[in-house]
From TrEMBL:
<feature type="domain" description="Beta-lactamase-related">
    <location>
        <begin position="82"/>
        <end position="351"/>
    </location>
</feature>
<dbReference type="Pfam" id="PF00144">
    <property type="entry name" value="Beta-lactamase"/>
</dbReference>
<dbReference type="InterPro" id="IPR012338">
    <property type="entry name" value="Beta-lactam/transpept-like"/>
</dbReference>
<protein>
    <recommendedName>
        <fullName>Beta-lactamase-related domain-containing protein</fullName>
    </recommendedName>
</protein>
<dbReference type="InterPro" id="IPR050789">
    <property type="entry name" value="Diverse_Enzym_Activities"/>
</dbReference>
<dbReference type="InterPro" id="IPR001466">
    <property type="entry name" value="Beta-lactam-related"/>
</dbReference>
């Protein structure tokens, strides 16, 4: 009888644990659905459409190959919107380019853009320590962690191995807190990036989203922007600093890429200092370190280094035309790639609302698939 009661009790505990896990999964799904459901508000203002090439043939691209590219995207990916600009005008479009969606980690590269003018005019001091700025956590930051500078924060080299408010960071290479000197160790940790957003807000006195609107959305003539679509993700049990998630459309994302290709200039106005465009897209963390952190080899493609919240293409299929190229990359298929030698900007997105209820795994577009798309695009140009 005692054995029977013990078995029943154990069975009840197992059922209760299963129920609790089911509730947790349900709450997590609701939270994720809430996070990904932003983007429903209509455009806040009338923007300015991108110009289109009158003739694709005159650009040196093969229309047959571009058609084949569209078919490849349809057959091989879950791309929902893609815009390619060549020499400042639309060369190629796929899907709904006006659909507003979650940018994932591409937000970090946009934050880098927003830092530019404030660094140049002296509002932001890259050498200031986070300790002096009052950056702190409820469980406390160590004295050595408080020595990290703003520069270390926005190059992912702070040495602060604190949990961020959101996931999607490199958990494999986290070290013991206080074990490294700030600036000496690269770790793709969302704590750094979230604090980077908080630092911008502290220095400027307004939100990341207001900065984005004033610095980029209005002067670039975004067509699908609305401040109400923007939403931070908080988890104060983990960290005081929220993730500043950004929601834009492919065609508005493409405009930001064109601004970077233009070295920060738009319609004769220098929106981002050229010096910052050059500095932010210059290597800080080399390929070998990036490969080591990710378990990649020199046979993997492309070979990437890291700058100020931009991924830099050091080599790709031994094609010299990729020299100087850089990219923003986000979970599930969000990309913004600039290839200066080809005068190309590629904005690629997937609508982040298609979830598999069994395991909650989103089937977006992998990095490998995206770079196959880019490679086919490059091969579509027959004359330069």
């Amino acid at each position: 009888m005692a054995t029977e009661n013990a078995t029943t009790c154990a069975h009840q505990k197992t059922k209760m644990m299963e129920y609790k896990n089911m509730v947790k999964r349900g709450l997590a799904l609701c939270g994720l659905l809430s996070l990904l459901s932003c983007g429903g508000h209509k455009p806040q203002f009338v923007g300015k459409p991108l110009l289109k090439h009158d003739s694709v043939q005159q650009t040196g691209y093969d229309t047959t190959k571009l058609s084949a590219l569209s078919q490849f995207i349809k057959d091989s990916s879950r791309t929902t919107g893609m815009v390619v600009l060549y020499d400042g005008k639309v060369l190629f479009e796929y899907g709904d380019v006006s659909q507003v969606s979650y940018l994932a980690s591409c937000r970090k590269s946009i934050l880098s853009m927003l830092y530019g003018k404030h660094i140049t005019n002296g509002t932001i001091d890259l050498n200031e320590t986070i300790g002096n700025l009052g950056i702190e956590e409820d469980d406390g930051l160590l004295p050595i962690e408080k020595q990290a500078t703003v520069d270390h924060i926005i190059t992912a080299r702070s040495g602060v191995f604190h949990l961020p408010a959101n996931g999607g960071y490199d958990t494999r290479n986290v070290k013991t807190r206080g074990s490294v000197k700030p600036g000496s160790y690269f770790l793709y940790n969302n704590w750094d990036f979230n604090v980077g957003g908080a630092i911008l807000e502290q220095y400027t006195g307004q939100s990341v989203y207001k900065e984005l609107q004033e610095q980029l959305a209005i002067p670039l003539g975004f067509e699908d922007w609305n401040l109400k679509n923007q939403k931070k993700k908080w988890n104060k049990r983990k960290s005081r600093y929220a993730a500043y998630h950004i929601y834009v459309s492919p065609r508005d994302l493409a405009k930001m890429g064109q601004l970077m290709l233009n070295k920060g200039k738009w319609n004769d106005e220098q929106l981002i200092p050229k010096s910052w465009v050059d500095q932010s897209t210059s290597m800080v963390t080399p390929v070998d370190t990036v490969n080591a952190r990710n378990g990649w080899t020199h046979n993997d493609m492309p070979q990437l280094s890291y700058g100020y919240m931009w991924w830099l293409l050091e080599s790709f299929k031994d094609n010299a035309d990729y020299e100087g190229a850089f990219s923003a990359t986000g979970w599930g298929g969000q990309f913004l790639t600039v290839i200066p030698k080809r005068k190309l900007v590629i904005a690629h997105m997937t609508k982040m609302d298609k979830l598999s209820l069994w395991g909650f795994h989103y089937k977006g577009v992998s990095d490998l698939t995206y770079w196959k798309i880019v490679d086919r695009l490059m091969q579509s140009q027959t004359t330069k």
